[in-house]
Design brief:
The protein is 53% helix and 12% strand. The protein has 188 residues and is an alpha/beta fold. It has one domain: Rossmann fold (3-Layer(aba) Sandwich). It binds adenosine-5'-triphosphate (ATP), (3R,4S,5R)-3,4,5-trihydroxycyclohex-1-ENE-1-carboxylic acid (SKM) and magnesium ion. Pathway: Metabolic intermediate biosynthesis; chorismate biosynthesis; chorismate from D-erythrose 4-phosphate and phosphoenolpyruvate: step 5/7. It comes from Polycladomyces abyssicola.
Length: 188
């Protein structure tokens, strides 16, 4: 497969990062449709490899192995694929190698939701996110703010409080097209 280090900005993969449950999967699918691109959800890819849910992988195989596969998958996709919309799992970007490859090969969008808004979404996701289980709300809050340091390394931030998924996807598409036109105007 070819190396994509010199890839034109219009062909770069777009990567969505942010805390679990902020909507990376939901919004990524919409962005892919709007830009006529393929969508890759890293959690789904890992589930296909093991033919198990993320919850079962954590339980039966363990988080350490999950993180290794997650990292290798992301590094491989970022190095060898282009024109994709990629939604990471919420913890993937905590790995330095993942941050490095995403920032060097892709355009990284951070979906930024406030803690107050995020808390309302907890009941929707708690059962399918093993990292949240057996934690108090205070411990989850600590994790939410600790992880912001890693997410602060991005190319663009979209503040998503009170916005529906369609509106967020439109904002990303608008922002991507703006960047394309600034850095690589059509016809040049
Ligand atoms: N803008 C939104 N407004 C309200 N609910 C939303 C929005 N975006 C996503 N959701 C809902 O929040 C939940 C989590 O969304 P989603 O699975 O897309 O998050 P995620 O960021 O991919 O999480 P993870 O990091 O665990 O992969 C889903 O139930 C989804 O329907
Ligand atoms: O934030 C996390 O650590 C995780 C988020 C999910 O997307 C899954 O990747 C898994 O549940 C771990
Ligand atoms: Mg997801």
């Amino acid at each position: 497969m070819s190396d994509v280090s010199e890839i034109p900005i219009r062909e770069k993969n777009i990567v969505l990062i942010g805390f679990m449950g902020v909507g990376k999967t939901t919004v990524g699918q919409l962005v892919a449709k709007k830009l006529y691109r393929d969508f890759i959800d890293i959690d789904e890819e890992i589930e296909k490899i093991y033919n198990m849910s993320v919850t079962d992988i954590f339980r039966k195989i363990g988080e350490t192995e999950f993180r290794r596969v997650e990292r290798e998958l992301i590094v491989n996709i970022c190095n060898h694929k282009k024109l994709k919309i990629i939604s990471l799992g919420g913890g993937a970007y905590l790995q330095e190698e993942v941050r490095k490859v995403c920032l060097s090969k892709c355009i990284v969008y951070f979906l930024d939701l406030s803690w107050e808004s995020w808390k309302e979404r907890l009941p929707l996701i708690i059962d399918s996110r093993p990292v949240l289980q057996n934690k108090t709300l205070h411990e989850i809050e600590d994790l939410f703010f600790k992880r912001r340091k890693a997410y602060s390394l991005h190319n663009s931030k979209i503040t998503i409080n009170n916005l529906d998924a369609e509106t967020i996807a439109n904002k990303i598409v608008e922002s991507v097209k703006f960047a394309w036109d600034i850095y690589q105007p059509q016809g040049e």
